[in-house]
């Protein structure tokens, strides 16, 4: 039974569950990101791994820029490699089993960190190994969510990945606060060890989730793909052969899989001009890099240190405030990106974030360096509060736009045959810039102090321009229709919101008529396709998607032709012709 309906299209409980369970990969990512900021300031951790002027006197222990940078950033090196490895693993094992294996890799890294007693290098290597798992998960999870989610709520379900990242960051902050009072190494070991629990939750949960129907169809396992689609639609086993939504969605996936099987896709395929594949590869990599260059991780990695440097009494509490704002506002992002699409929120978000980073940097520059041994002046207290407000307002905009939006786009921008590899390349770009920022931030901030914020402000404005000139609007479309939109030579990024599959007057009509499809299309019991020669293609939920001039279905559908063109052969030829023409 469907859990609810969106635009009169059934949505099953499994669709929600698989998104939430898979999003634990984002929680692991967020938890590992959030914990290190506070751990670097814990006394036992500093006495074991920092450089101490007087052995045993924690007051003389400080991390050098190189050591702090390596401890923080080696996670990102691991994630970079893991993201690239995630594509072949996900293609070979399937999306589900890939995530289960990657949880095991993460746990091994955590154990290495827990067994570190005096060697900071061992702790850093443990973060490197954990990063392999986190990076591979960051490539697999959005891809799995996009491939299994119903198109009507794909944006919301894929954005739960970012929601769980923010939740993981917040939980890490809260646990760090709770363990500060624990004596000895328990103050930081408890924080690190709890990460194992989250990996086990994801691994066990994925055992009960369906595999991606697109991965199954690519291996000609059509009945399993039908079962996966039916589960996400809330359709019972007895109806999955006849239900209009399931039949048409599986047929669309099957036709695309057959076409793509004929075209072998290696890594170099990601850089072919045909079908705007290269364009989309570089676009995905650019958007992921720009997400890092928004400056969000400046606060997440070094926030406690940043706010301690402006004389705030308890910088840990400030981190929790930022984490809470990040988490709560991401809920708003789920609605914003579903309601207004992808392009407009990202452009507005870039401008908003730039403005508040400018305020943050200006206030910090006016304040100047603060001596931690001297009382904070009233002026600097006011400026410090303004910086907190500016940081919170920046996080508000980021959490509602760039944070979830980029992960949604990584799942829905690429064609199926290269989606895993293009997703891996895009995610590796994210982690490369994550590493560069994590490692070099102490040096840059030490040199130009809070003027660093002006750099991020400029990057946000640049990101808004990239979105306007290069990103296509992919909301309310199936993944296959997104592919058609990018290969339509007449569609430009700034006009893409008005693009709709041929046979439809608008994207709104497309969504509405697909929602009406189950009511209008009667499929005889025992027959999995509507073979009526007079049936209207636009009455089916996936009819005429991207098809050239499709108005009627023919009886050929009953003999294996496409469900969205009078001839499946013609449909394939048309798409191939369009790709060569682009």
From TrEMBL:
PROSITE patterns listed in its UniProt record: MFS, SUGAR_TRANSPORT_1, SUGAR_TRANSPORT_2
Its membrane topology: Multi-pass membrane protein
Predominant subcellular localization, coarse grouping: membrane
Similarity annotation: Belongs to the major facilitator superfamily. Sugar transporter (TC 2.A.1.1) family.
Name of the protein: Hexose transporter hxt1
Record-linked NCBIfam families: SP
Keywords per UniProt: Membrane, Sugar transport, Transmembrane, Transmembrane helix, Transport
Top-level lineage group: Eukaryota
Major facilitator superfamily (MFS) profile domain location: 18-475
One cellular component (GO) term of this entry: plasma membrane
Transmembrane segments: 12-31, 65-85, 97-117, 123-144, 156-178, 190-209, 282-304, 316-337, 344-366, 386-410, 431-448, 454-471
Disordered: region residues: 515-582
UniProt feature, compositional bias: Basic and acidic residues: 515-537, 567-582
Lineage start: Eukaryota, Fungi, Dikarya, Basidiomycota, Agaricomycotina
Keyword Lipoprotein in annotation: no
Gene: HXT1
Subcellular location: Membrane
Pfam families hit by this protein: Sugar_tr
GO MF, one annotated term: carbohydrate:proton symporter activity
Catalytic activity annotation: myo-inositol(out) + H(+)(out) = myo-inositol(in) + H(+)(in)
């Amino acid at each position: 039974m469907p859990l609810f309906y969106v635009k009169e299209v059934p949505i099953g409980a499994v669709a929600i569950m698989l998104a939430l369970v898979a999003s634990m990969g984002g929680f692991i990512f967020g938890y590992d990101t959030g914990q290190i900021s506070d751990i670097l300031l814990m006394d036992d951790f500093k006495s074991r791994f920092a450089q101490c002027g007087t052995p045993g006197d924690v007051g003389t222990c400080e991390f050098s820029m190189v050591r702090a940078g390596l401890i923080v950033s080696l996670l990102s090196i691991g994630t970079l490699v893991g993201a690239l490895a995630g594509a072949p693993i996900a293609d070979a094992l399937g999306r589900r089993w890939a995530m289960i294996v990657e949880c095991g890799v993460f746990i091994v890294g955590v154990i290495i960190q827990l067994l570190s007693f005096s060697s900071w290098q061992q702790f850093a290597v443990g973060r490197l190994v954990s990063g392999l798992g986190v990076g591979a998960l960051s490539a697999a999870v959005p891809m799995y969510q996009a491939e299994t989610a119903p198109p009507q709520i794909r944006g919301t379900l894929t954005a739960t990945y970012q929601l769980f990242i923010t939740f993981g960051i917040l939980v890490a902050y809260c646990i760090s606060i709770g363990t500060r009072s624990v004596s000895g190494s328990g103050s930081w070991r408890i924080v690190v060890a709890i990460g194992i629990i989250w990996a086990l939750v994801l691994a066990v949960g994925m055992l009960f989730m369906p595999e991606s129907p697109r991965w199954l169809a690519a291996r000609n396992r059509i009945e399993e793909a039908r079962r996966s689609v039916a589960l996400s639609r809330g359709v019972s086993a007895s109806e999955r052969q006849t239900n209009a939504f399931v039949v048409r969605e599986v047929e669309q996936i099957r036709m695309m899989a057959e076409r793509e099987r004929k075209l072998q896709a290696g890594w170099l395929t990601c850089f072919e001009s045909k079908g705007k594949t290269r364009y989309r590869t570089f676009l995905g990599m650019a958007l992921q890099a720009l997400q890092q260059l928004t400056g969000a991780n400046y606060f997440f990695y070094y926030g406690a240190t940043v706010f301690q440097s402006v004389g705030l009494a308890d910088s840990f509490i400030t981190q929790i405030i930022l984490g809470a704002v990040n988490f709560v506002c991401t809920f708003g992002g789920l609605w914003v990106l579903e309601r207004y699409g992808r392009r407009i929120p990202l452009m507005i978000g870039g401008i908003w974030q730039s403005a508040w980073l400018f305020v943050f940097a200006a206030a910090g520059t006016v304040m100047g360096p603060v001596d931690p041994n001297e009382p904070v002046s009233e002026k600097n207290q006011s400026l410090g509060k303004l910086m907190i407000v500016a940081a919170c307002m920046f996080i508000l905009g980021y959490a509602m736009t760039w944070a979830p939006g980029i992960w949604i786009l990584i799942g829905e921008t690429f064609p199926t045959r290269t989606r895993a590899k293009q997703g891996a390349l895009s995610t590796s770009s994210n982690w490369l810039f994550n590493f560069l920022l994590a490692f070099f931030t102490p040096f840059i901030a030490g040199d130009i102090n809070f003027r660093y914020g002006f750099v991020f402000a400029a990057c946000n404005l640049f990101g808004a321009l990239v979105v306007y000139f290069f990103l296509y609007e992919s909301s309310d479309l199936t993944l296959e229709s997104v592919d058609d939109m990018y290969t339509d030579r007449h569609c430009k990024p700034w006009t893409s919101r008005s693009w709709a599959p041929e046979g439809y007057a608008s994207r709104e009509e497309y969504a509405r008529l697909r929602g009406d499809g189950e009511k209008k299309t009667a499929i005889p019991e025992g027959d999995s396709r509507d073979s009526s020669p007079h049936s209207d293609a636009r009455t089916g939920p996936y009819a005429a998607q991207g098809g050239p001039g499709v108005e009627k279905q023919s009886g050929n559908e009953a003999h294996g032709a496409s469900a969205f063109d009078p001839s499946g052969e013609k449909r394939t030829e048309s798409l191939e012709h369009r790709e060569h023409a682009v």
